[in-house]
Fold this sequence. Notes:
Blueprint: H1 2-32, H2 41-60, H3 64-86, E1 106-108, E2 114-116
Antiparallel strand pairs: 1-2
Amino acid sequence: MKIRAKKVGTTLGVLALVVAAATVVLWFRRIGEVDIPEDRTTYVIFFLSAVALGVGAFVAGARWFGGVAAVLAIVIGSFFPFTVAISRQEVAANAIRVGGSIPVFSALDENGEVFESATLAGKPALIKFFRGHW
Length: 134
């Protein structure tokens, strides 16, 4: 009976890691496409499911490699919901959308000279903004 419990625990640990890793891959694919969903509930549910499966692996008594997989799943699965809880990353109502019009602004360029957005009128442009967390 103990061997069967270890098999179940190991399977749960590996399954937990698969769920966590697949969810990470899907999340980063969305980030790469600049298509972060406003409602992240589905991702949080999958990450917390990985945590629950990881804990279940320990309760069932996983072998060492099932335990390692479970620990990784718990760490990965806990990190994302934690970051969602502490960092509200909301899209502003007046955000620039792909294909939208560029707002009128001026800023200093890398040479310290004033750049006017009006100089881009009628030309395709890619504007990338970086949001720092410091």
